[in-house]
Amino acid sequence: MGESTEPFLVRKLELTDYSKGFTELLSQLTLCPPITEDDFHSRFHELQSLGEDHSICVIENSSSHEIVATGSVFVEKKFIRNCGKAGHIEDVVVDSRVRGWGLGQMVVNYLSDYARSTGCYKVILDCDVENGQFYEKCGFKEKGVQMSLYF
């Protein structure tokens, strides 16, 4: 079950979120061409099979039943730190119509708490420079340099 901060409900992704604008919301973050409901269901079940190693948080507007914010966390199992775990936050986006309402911070807090609850010794994320201040407000500190190789 999720947490309610009227008029918003913070919870895990559900199958019915396909029809609530979940993938359309992701397109406000990056390329996310439309996918079929069958493809959504297939990926949902695949991610669900990972158990506690992956979680997607959504915020639903309780009045309109639209998904207005989301983010995910992947738990990486390591050999270092006594076979420790690290959380990786990805794909945080808030609908442009409700930015500035604190929903992004709610998503990041949910995902950070999730990582902590699964035994992660840290949670990390990559972001654009212009989003750095937002993540600092969420308690993150700049560390290192991000590098990417796209295929």
TrEMBL record:
<keyword id="KW-0808">Transferase</keyword>
<feature type="domain" description="N-acetyltransferase">
    <location>
        <begin position="8"/>
        <end position="151"/>
    </location>
</feature>
<dbReference type="GO" id="GO:0004343">
    <property type="term" value="F:glucosamine 6-phosphate N-acetyltransferase activity"/>
</dbReference>
<dbReference type="InterPro" id="IPR000182">
    <property type="entry name" value="GNAT_dom"/>
</dbReference>
<dbReference type="InterPro" id="IPR039143">
    <property type="entry name" value="GNPNAT1-like"/>
</dbReference>
<keyword id="KW-0256">Endoplasmic reticulum</keyword>
<comment type="subunit">
    <text>Homodimer.</text>
</comment>
<dbReference type="InterPro" id="IPR016181">
    <property type="entry name" value="Acyl_CoA_acyltransferase"/>
</dbReference>
<comment type="pathway">
    <text>Nucleotide-sugar biosynthesis; UDP-N-acetyl-alpha-D-glucosamine biosynthesis; N-acetyl-alpha-D-glucosamine 1-phosphate from alpha-D-glucosamine 6-phosphate (route I): step 1/2.</text>
</comment>
<comment type="similarity">
    <text>Belongs to the acetyltransferase family. GNA1 subfamily.</text>
</comment>
<protein>
    <recommendedName>
        <fullName>Glucosamine 6-phosphate N-acetyltransferase</fullName>
        <ecNumber>2.3.1.4</ecNumber>
    </recommendedName>
</protein>
<dbReference type="Pfam" id="PF00583">
    <property type="entry name" value="Acetyltransf_1"/>
</dbReference>
<dbReference type="GO" id="GO:0006048">
    <property type="term" value="P:UDP-N-acetylglucosamine biosynthetic process"/>
</dbReference>
<keyword id="KW-0472">Membrane</keyword>
<dbReference type="GO" id="GO:0006044">
    <property type="term" value="P:N-acetylglucosamine metabolic process"/>
</dbReference>
<dbReference type="GO" id="GO:0005789">
    <property type="term" value="C:endoplasmic reticulum membrane"/>
</dbReference>
<keyword id="KW-0012">Acyltransferase</keyword>
